[in-house]
Structures are given as structure tokens and as C-alpha cells.
Amino acid sequence: MVKRLLRRFWVERQIWILVIPMLIWVFTFSYLPIYGLIIAFQNFIPGNSYLAGPWVGLDNFVRFFDIPEFGNIMRNTIAMSLLTMAFSLPGPIILALMFSELRGRRIKKFTQTVSYIPYFISWVVVTNILFTFLRTEGVFNELLQSLGLTNKPILFLGEGKFYWIMIALANLWKDVGFNTIIYLSAIAAVDSELYEAGRIDGLGRFGLVWHITLPGIRTTIVLLWILGLGGILNAGFEQHLLLGNPMTREYYEVIDTYVYRYGVQLGNYSFGAAVGLMKSVLGVALVVLVNRLSRKILDTSIF
Amino acid sequence: MIKRLVVLAVIACIPILVFAQTAPGKTNMFGWVVPEKTLEINFYQADRGDQAQHDRDTQQIRDFMLKEFNVKLVKNVSDVDTTEKLNLMLASGNYPKIIMAMSADTVSQWAAQGHLYNMAPDVEKTYKGIKSTLGYLYGMYLTDKKELFGLPRGWGLLPIPDQSAHIRWDWYQEMGSPKIATPDDYYNVIKKMVAAHPKNANGEKVYGISWSTDQVKVADLMAIWGLKDGYKEDAQNNLSHWVNTPEGLQAVLWLNKFYREGLMDPEAFVNKYDNWKAKFSAERIVGHIGGWWQSWNAGHEIWSKSPGWTDDKRYVQISIKDPAAKVAYFTPKNTLGWNYTVITNKATAQDRADYMRFFEWAISPMAVRIFGWGVPNLTDASDGKASFWTTDGKNWEFNDQMKKIIMAGAYDQVPNWNLRGTGEFFITQGQALTKDAKPSTVWADQNFNSDPAPEAKWRVLMNKNLEGTEFDFTAFEAIKFLPENVLTTKRQQIKDAEYTGFVKAVQSNTVAEATANFNALKATLNKLGLADLEKFQNVEYKKNLAKMKL
Asked: ipTM higher than 0.85?
């Protein structure tokens, strides 16, 4: 058995040499720190050892459900995640389809590269752009007024009702280009003979997209959708701290900002760890559930 | 005549002082026994900061300290949240031997876990200068077990005002300087001023009042109704939060009037500092409530660089008070200081002895001047590097040219203003007047508050207008909120809800709506546990008051 394993390792040695550093990295940074989750079940005080804090069971989890803002925080987190998904799931697919339909190689490369740029811009810069754009004396308000759509400026940055959609659109603008990469590679993998057959059968450009491209990348779409649902409790972090203000606090506070301000900043690490663990468990549970549903309904799943 | 002779004597000594270097083992002219081996004071400062900028601004003073004292100062700062940074240091066990600017709560937390050195035996037996300089405050820093884990920074009472109402002075003069004593007077003047100047030179709308999100302090407003840092104090020293007082509602309705009348910038609670400053310096805001430096920085310090600027085109700080209030308590003072310098358990016995000796010297009057006003005796004024002051180690004088600039607050006009390292190393220095023959305060610009020189007239006017608005509120400010205290979280929840609810009430469209929003805020805060917070604070406040009387 051992001999067989060693022989196999020797045969595949080039691949193992490439993989081993990555395995070490994953083990060190993704698995080793898991032992720290023990503090979620203790009253951990920074500076003491991990086992020194008194055991409190599920108190830190219960505490999260007991906080007065719990309803608001969950509402904001889920609403912003779903809104972002509503834009960010079809957005890159549509853009990737448009890129793939472009004929000129140069224009295709140029537009693709330009679309990736926002992804690399930090939220500090993005929120400043949004601030300048959406101020009462900003470009957007001036445009609305010059088109006669409103007769007085709207305080977009100070009204909670605009906050969610503003964040969802900002997420879309920032990530849409970069997220096309995976769809573009999926589109490239679709058999070109299928397109030729489609053309012979009389399909137009839209027909080809609908009947060949989209079914061809269905697995990728479902995969990303399932993984996206797993992150439904991750509704962003720094963008809220940067763009939120007292007037929009009831709409911007999400799980991560709350945990940062009340857990990390106030030194309640146990509380922060408990909420983080709860988020992860719920995320995995959602992925499993949606994966099952997808297998039953769409006959496609990731595991 | 005597003053002139002293000045001449000091100036005559400068070349000798500049080029002379005290030999190791000898006492230098500032009373410091120069160590044989360079003493390194390498510390983390728990203030957010830019390391590169700090390195540039401290180069001169670091060189000076190394040359004259054989002390190598190494200050480490970072641009991350300091509470988070300290907690991570604590959790990882990776922290330096000295930490400065640690909050009282954090000192207690670290000390409870045995990470800090108890300085009390050293201070009481060997380094007695620290105890005698701190005077009656010393006892306030001791724990119940008489331990001393941190030396205060910025301690003592500096009787100068910080917060106030502000008015655009030249336009106020233009109106004939009508009397402003009450909030209603202020509102009426602001309203008339905006009516007289509805647009700025670029045709942009002018507002009566505005802030940036980091400037809004509800307590500044409540001060006008006689509340102390947002709390009303009764004869038995019980403190009630402003939402639980009739004055709180009056204050909200007063500010709401600005909003309803279109006198408040609609982005008053949305502006980032740069946006607010841009509006302010573009002459779009005629009034302000907040720190005096805010309207100085965004007002005349910018305008004075333009040709044709006149001296009275600026903001002047004034006090306004509701007629029913005894005093407008604008500026609460914490005589315990801002935060603490600590020695951690990473320091060896030799380190601790060296550090304590340096800390004792750093609290002395001459050290206060060196670290407060920067390197002395530099005469090269060509690129703005001349010192603020000259000294022979015993006597001192302000440099006349620099004195004029400081009095006029014209810092921006001097290139390389920051290079002297002023205020960069706050180790154990206080803000109170030094206890020597010619007392002064650590802030260079606060030494001329009654100076008859014409350059000082605006400071003199500010201090006259705001006389009595600062008060000692140490007993309240010293209340500790430790992470394990359930009220620490409640307090933060109350603060968050308070701010949001306050803004909602102020930006209501009718008086009835503002009143309803105020009542809703009151109900929310009380539901969050405000009564528990008030109870805890009252117990601690009274304890501290009793301690201070000892």
C-alpha cells in the first residue's frame, strides 16, 4: 500500500511539487486557525491564553439574537446581499455574452480590460466618487433637475431608502467586468460545431445565444449561484463604514460592521468569533441545501 | 530693561549652546545626566498616524535629543484603529516595552492581566519629581491597591475654552454688531446674515450652519442649555442624560428651526471633513458650533493667503446661553489627561530604571517646553526652521518673529512649520502651567491669551467672550468602561442610537414631527438601558468626586 503510494507520488512528482506549497498554505492559513474558534464558547479576554477564559456555552450566540438591532441588521444584510445578487448574477453573464459577440479583436480586448479596472479600485476611492456624484450639488442631482425629473435636489447619501440600491449598483459597477472572466472562459469552451449546426438550422445571433451559449454555460452559472448563496450573510464591510452616516445607520449596519464595532473595537472577541462561526455554518448549510435543490430541479450540482 | 538683558544674554550664548555637546556622564544644561550608552526610547503610540510624515516632522527634535541628551527617540505609529491594534497586540503577546497614549480603560485591562509594570514604588521612592509635579492628581491615578500602571499625558487644568458658537465677524460688524447672548439672538443674527449674503461669489447658496460627520457633538449644543457634556447635574450630583431633560427637547427644537427655515446645510450630517471645509472656506457657512480651531482652519487661515484679505474677515468665537441656564458649559476639562504612558512586562529591570529616569525628566518644565515648542535656539529663519524660543537651560524667551506668527495664528504662512517637532513627543507632559519661575504651558499658542500685542487680539477676544465656559469635569470623564462590563456595549448602542435619533429629530419638517422624533428617541434610549447607564455613571461620578476632594 505504502509502496504503491510512493510509486504513484514518484510518477506524479512534478504535479506534487507544484501542489505541496499550496497545501501547506491552505493548511496553515485555513485549517490551523480553526482551533481559535474555541473562544466563541468562552468569555475570552485578549492577552489570556485560549483555554483560560470561562466556558459560557452558547451565550455569545444567544447574545447576538438578543441585541436590540438584530432585526435591522439581518434585514439589511440579507436585503443588500439579495439585491447585489439580483444585479451581480445576470450582470456579468450579459456582459460576457456581449463581449463574446464583439467581432474586432482589438475592441474586444480593449473593452474587456476597461471593464476590469473598477474591480481594482479601492472602496475608499469608489465611495469618494459616489459622494461627489450623488451630493445634493453633484452631477446626478444636476442631471435630474436639468431633465425636469425633480425640482429640488435629493439627498441620496442621507436617506436610508436609497442606500441599499446605491450599494447594489456600486457593487455591480465594481465587480461586473472582473466577474465576466469565468463566464468568458466557459463560453470559449462551448463546442464551435454546435454554433455551425445552429446556423445551418437557421438560428440568428440571439437564437445562438439562447439555444447554445446559455445552455452551454449553465453549469458555471449554477455553480456561481450556489456559491453566491453561501455568502448571503456577507453583505460587504468597508463600503458601509465609508459611505454610511448617522442618517443611514438604520439601513447600512450589517452583520460584519456590527461585529467589527462591537466585537473587535470593544474587545469582545468571543462575540465576534461566535457571530463569524454562525455565519460560516449558515453559509455551508445554504450551499448544501441549494446544491440539493439544484440537483433535483436543474439536474446540475457542484457536489 | 531686565528682560532685554536676559534676551541679550540668551542670544549671546546661542552659538556656544548650539555647538556645544554635553559629554556622557555629565549633567547637560537642561538638568539631564547624559548616559554613557545611548538610551533608546522606542515606543508605540496608540494614536492613528502616518509614520512617514511623523519621521519627517520629528527629524530635528530626534537629532537634538540624540546630540544633547544621548537619547534616541523612536516613535511608531500606524494608520489603523488603535483599539483594534492594541487588542491584537495583547492577543498575540507581541507588544513593545513602552506604549504611549493608552486609554485608562485599556491600562486597566492590560494591568489586570499582568502586562504592565507597577511604577508606584519607583515614583514614591526614587523618581519623586513625578509625584511632586503631578501634585494632588497623583492619588487619582492609583488603583485601589495603590498601584500606578500609567503616567498621564496632557494632565492638569488648562483654563482655556475649546468649544463655542462662532460668527462670521466682518459680516457681523456690517450688521452693526447686534447683541448675541441667547440662542434666539444667535438664530436671528444668522438668519439676517444669510438674508444679506444669500449667495457666495460663485453664486452658490449660503447656509447658516453646517458640520462634517466627525465634528457633530450633541454635547456642544446641550451646553447652551447649561448641560455638562450632554448631562444635567442636580444639587446632589446626579447626572441625567439630555434626552431625559426638558432642555434636550428645547435644544433639538432650536436646531430644527435652522433646518426648517433652510438655514442648515442639508448635508450637515453627511459631509466628510473635506467637503465641509470646502464649503466653509468658499464662504458658504456663516455660523458654527464646535471647536475654535475648526473655523480658524477652514476660515481665515485659508483666506489670509489671498491678496486683499482683511484682518476681520474671520470667525470669532462667542458664548450663547439659554436665559434659564446658569452657565453655558461648552468645554468640559479632564484634568487627569488624555491617556497614559506605560511600561510593559517586556522591559528588563535596567530598561525600567532608564525609562523612569527619562520620564521624570520629561515632566520637568524645560522638557515640557522642548517637547511642546520644539527644538530651541535655531536661528536660521530662511526656510522657516527658526526656533520658537531660545534658552540657556534656565531662562527662556520666545523668538520675537515667531511669537508674532504664533499670536496671529499665521502658521500656514511659514514653510516647514512642523519641522521643529512641536507636540510630537508627548511623554508625561501636562497642559497646566509649569511650576517654575516663569510659568508657561505646553501649547506654544496658548501663552499669549492676555498679551497686549495687536497680533494676539483675536485670541484675547475669544478668551474674553468665552470666559467661564470651561469647567473641570474630571470626575465624569474618568469613569471607566471595561470590555467585561455589560454597560460598555450598552453605552455604545446608546451612543449609536442617540446620534441617529438626534439627526432625525433635528431634520424634521414640522415642530410636531421634531417633538415626536425626540420622544421616540427618548423611548429608544431608555429601552436600550439608559437608566442603567445613568445609575452606573452616577455612582462612579460621586466616587470620583469624593476621591478628588481627598
From this structure: no
